[in-house]
Each structure stands twice: as structure tokens, then as C-alpha cells.
Design goal:
Layout: H1 3-10, H2 15-33, E1 41-48, E2 51-52, E3 57-66, E4 71-80, E5 86-90, E6 94-95, E7 99-106, E8 111-122, E9 131-135, E10 139-143
Parallel strand pairs: 2-10
Antiparallel strand pairs: 1-3, 3-7, 4-5, 4-6, 4-8, 8-9, 8-10
């Protein structure tokens, strides 16, 4: 190889490679910016005591947070045996929030009383057909 040819191979033009790298970085950044944002929500629930006499009360508390743009509320629900779930008490519907609810649930009948919290999301504060966003774990209380 001649000396002039060695000089040409040692100092290549890196402009095409830079253009490719910049294009890849730009497309990746655009893809990340265009990804859909997801709303974050959390729901916590506690109830106790786990065993109570008939006629006694069980303390239940539910708390939720949600950053979506709908009206959210938290409800404490109960069911006896294997029946349907019924709302005991609900928080006020609030936009871009969750709410909190505390309630004393009367234990009227012997058997298993099940309690849970539900985060509901509606389009208006008075929405009668709100969608269930999330459901807490079920707490079972023995009524003796």
C-alpha cells in the first residue's frame, strides 16, 4: 500500500455513521414519547376484629388513590354466606382522587361475614353505573 492510500483509510468519513446513530436515537425517543400513559391507582382495606358475637360491630376502613380524570369513590361492601355483595358505605365521588371510608358494620347473623373495598370510577359525581376499577382482598369475619 502506498503512503497516500494508508492516510485515506486511517481518516474515514464518519458522517454517514453519525447520521444513522442520530436517526436511531431520535426514533427511539419519539417512540417513548408516544407511548400511552397509564393511570396509577392503589386500594387498601382493613377490617377487624376477625371474630365477633352476633349483634357486635366490625370496624372496616378502605382508602384509595387514582390519578385518572374520572370521578372515583371507594365503597365498603359486605356479604353473608355466599350471597351477593351489598354496599355498606361509600365515599364522596372525587375527580382525580380516590377517597376514604370508615364504617362500623353490624354483625347481625351467625356465620361468615365477608367484607371488601371496591374502587369505582364514574363519568360524573352522580354516575349510577360506575365501573369497578379495582377490588381489595376479602376479609372474613366469624360471627358467633
Amino acid at each position: 500500500m502506498t503512503q497516500e492510500r494508508r492516510r485515506m483509510t486511517a481518516h474515514r468519513d464518519h458522517r454517514p455513521m453519525r447520521a444513522v446513530v442520530l436517526t436511531v436515537v431520535g426514533v427511539t425517543a419519539l417512540g417513548l414519547a408516544a407511548a400511552p400513559a397509564s393511570a396509577k391507582s392503589s386500594l387498601s382495606f382493613s377490617a377487624g376484629p376477625r371474630s365477633v358475637k352476633a349483634g357486635g360491630h366490625v370496624r372496616a376502613a378502605g382508602k384509595a388513590s387514582d390519578d385518572n380524570s374520572s370521578f372515583n369513590r371507594v365503597c365498603v361492601q359486605e356479604r353473608q354466606g355466599g350471597g351477593a355483595w351489598h354496599a355498606v358505605k361509600c365515599s364522596k365521588a372525587v375527580r382525580r382522587a380516590g377517597g376514604a371510608v370508615n364504617v362500623n358494620v353490624p354483625a347481625r347473623h351467625r356465620g361468615q361475614l365477608q367484607l371488601r373495598a371496591v374502587l369505582l370510577e364514574g363519568r360524573t359525581p352522580q354516575d349510577q353505573h360506575a365501573k369497578v376499577r379495582s377490588v381489595s382482598r376479602v376479609v372474613t369475619v366469624t360471627v358467633r
